[in-house]
Amino acid sequence: MPVAPIDLEPDCSKCAALCCVVFAFDKSESFGLDKAAGKECPNLNIDNTCKIFEERVERGFPGCVSYTCFGAGQRVTQEVFGGASWREEPALKARMGAALSVLRRIHEQLVLLNAARGLPVTPEHSAQLKYFEATLCSNDPWSEETLSRFPIDKVAGDISNWMRQLRGLVS
Length: 171
Ligand code: SF4
Known about the structure:
The chain is mostly helical and 171 residues long. It has 6 helices and no strands. Helices cover 43% and strands 0% of the residues.
């Protein structure tokens, strides 16, 4: 069965501001302050917009500009948690963070496979690419349980090894 296309572009309007809440960051050249995992960034507005969005680089948060969830944030919020938010249920922070950690890596692998699709691959490479895509794109909606069981380290390692074989195709 063909796999439906997955949106790999972030849509913050459909996400519960997960990247501004669930992950920790340290005060550094990338972030202007220390923040613990599960703590809201003080720059986050109640409507999940960023108070300093247009000035993040100047205000010391270039890490927020370079980070991308590859579209996993809105999917965790809408698909895995049915549109729920940690704002109404704070215990969801850790659970949504765990789901995002895996689904972001799944989407990252799909971005890599999309890039490989543009190369002049052999039929064997093409078949392997389709296999990886089918592995990463479940026909059923993801759940906390299926994400927690997904062997992302193994799959990412297999894709990395496979992509090494393609190096000779890049001019
Ligand atoms: S600075 Fe803005 S974009 Fe960065 S984590 Fe805080 S609220 Fe989110």
